[in-house]
Amino acid sequence: MNLRSFKKVIRNTIMVDIEYRFNYYMLILSTILTLIMEWAVFEHVFEGRQNVGGLPASHAFAFVLFGMIIRTVQVLWGKASQMIDEVREGTFRRYLLQPISHPLYFIAQAIGAKTNTFLAAIVICLVYKFAFDSPATFLSIDGLGPTFISFTLSCLLLWMIYLCMVYASFYLEESQFLLLTLNISIGVFSGTVLPLSWLPDWLKIFLSYTPLPLLGDWPLRTALGLMPSAEFFHSLQLATLWTAILAGLMAILYRRGLKRYEAFGG
Amino acid sequence: MLSIEAKELGRHFKIRDRGESLGAAVQSFLSPKWKIKDAVSDVSFGIQQGEIVGLVGANGAGKTTLLKMIAGLLHPTHGSVSSLGFTPHQRDKAYLKQIGMVMGQKSQMWVDIPAWDTFMLLADIYDLDPAKARARVEKLAKQFRVFDQLGVQVRRLSLGERMKMEIIAAVLHEPKILILDEPTIGLDVLAKDVIRNFVLEYNKEEETSIILSSHDMEDISELCDKLIVINKGKLVYNGDLESFSKDKNLKQWIQSIISEE
To answer: Using an 8 Å Cβ cutoff, are A79 and A110 in contact?
Structure first.
């Protein structure tokens, strides 16, 4: 798949997104409403206390905001679910007739689908940074580069996990349950809803052997300035390793899956 | 020279053997039983470059399964097929750039945006020169009389208009093999005429091998040089259309097979 077609898939996906304005307005409205509700919950949790579980009140809301933005930009449950249905119904064949790399095609669609959300997220972050009482370390100039790197890699890792689940449907026919399990896991164990530091030690050790902390905790604490450099670079190495593992798994599932792909019927 | 050659080509599917009721569904869940269906069995034929070949058979005869193996969408379970010197199911990008396929109801268009945008994406995917691709789209759209619909969302087009856009998408990159799986299904007489005229002209200009699967015997009689008849996965007839038309007994027999459900 060449760069021109990669960019055009992104462009066409953005066009599909802005074709349905009501969807887009609802996304922004629901993001703002969720933000308000989470702020109300944390206000109550922090009432009369300077910090909870090592997290000061001033960081708590930045945590909530950026955690929600990461989740909103990363999560592609709808697209992955649609693609699993395409495998089951046989319409997946349209990707097989063209000289493209399906993983790259999906990632281009993911970037396109999330571009408008990402732009809205940048606006919200900037408004929060300069108009409200945000911590000085939130999206600081020094931290912008590492935040961008960790955020980009976390999105890529999650999209690759989604693709593995799509290709699992070549074998399982129906793999929506995998998506559901993943969504629940991300919510609880990636660190975007609750800080991972609040979890018991045994669970933290278990999660360190999975890519889940890299999906949320890594970019989140980097954006808040709570991640030391040594830990950032260690996480970067882990993210690179997991990218290689997932790329290999994807390739195996895809190539072998295509041999089994029946697309039975007309 | 043969552009497509199949030798004892076959494909079977493993499907679940279950009854119709909720009880049968639960039983199948707890203790699944499987059966093997031979969709295509020991089919051998050859297609010369530039031929238009009709593929006919009753519903469920194995026509689409055979076409999918030629397109590389399915791996055969036995036998072999070679197309333009490639093994289709290896899905070499050089091979995929030389084939085009239209599959009736299954779309390769992006339905939420105008057809023009899908065509420009396909032009990039197939590495076409942008200016030449634009000119080709305009020429084909005028030929199909859908030029004014290029800027309309695909999902808002009529069935006939959508099918024409699908054909444009399939031939944009000037494939050497074009597979048309029931392209006139559900279309009115005028739309069918436009598509038939296009297929004849396109074959004449580009010398593309065309495989046309259709239940409409008018499609076959007006377009095809050669006929392949499949019944219950097996090859029943493989020869030229003229001989088929002259042999009344053969014609009756095959028509009875096709109409058998």
So the answer is: yes
Quote the CA–CA distance of A189 and A67 in Å, as a whole number.
12
Contact in structure between A222 and A147 (CB atoms under 8 Å) = yes
Cβ separation of A8 and B120 shorter than 8 Å?
yes
Name every chain A residue with its beta carbon within 8 A of the beta carbon of B116: none
Spell out which residues of chain B touch residue A93, defining contact as CB-CB under 8 Å.
68, 73, 103, 106
**pLDDT tens, residue by residue, B243-258:** 877 877 777 777 776 6
Contact B86/A at CB under 8 A: no
Give how far the C-alpha of residue B46 lies from the chain's centroid of Cα atoms, to the nearest Å. 16
Question: B152 to chain A: which residues are within 8 Å by CB?
Answer: none
Q: CB-hemisphere CA count at 13 Å for A256?
A: 11
Digit-coded pLDDT (tens) for A197-254: 888 899 999 999 999 999 999 999 899 888 899 999 999 999 999 999 999 999 999 9
Q: How close A8 gets to chain B, by Cα (Å)? A: 6
CA distance to partner chain B, nearest, from residue A122 (Å): 27
Check residue A85 and report its DSSP letter: H
Q: What share of chain B is helix, strand, coil (3-state, %, to 5)?
A: 45, 30, 30
Interface of A with B in 77-116 (CB under 8 A): 90-91, 93-94, 96-100
CA distance A97 to B170: 10
The partner residues of B16 in beta bridges, in order of sequence, read: B34
Question: Could you tell me the two tokens for B192?
Answer: 């069918």
Whether A78 has a pLDDT exceeding 70, the answer reads yes
Which bin fits B144, alpha (ψ -120 to 50), beta or left (φ > 0)? alpha
Q: ipTM of this predicted complex?
A: 0.86
Q: Compute the distance between CA of residue A228 and CA of residue B113 in angstroms, rounded to an integer.
A: 46
Cβ proximity of B51 and B209 under 8 Å: yes
Q: Compute the CA torsion angle B75, B76, B82, B88 (nearest 10 deg).
A: -10
User: Distances from the Cα of A13 to the Cαs of A45, B152, B169, in angstroms?
Assistant: 40, 16, 18
Q: Which residue has the higher pLDDT, B133 or B256?
A: B133
Interface of B with A in 92-111 (CB under 8 A): 93, 96-97, 99, 101, 103-104, 106-108, 110
**B207 vs B213: CA distance, rounded Å:** 19
Identify the sign of the CA torsion B213, B217, B220, B222. Answer: negative
Q: How confident is the model at residue B54 (pLDDT cuts 50, 70, 90)?
A: very high
Give strand ranges (E) for chain B: 2-16, 34-48, 52-56, 78-83, 99-103, 177-181, 209-213, 226-231, 234-240
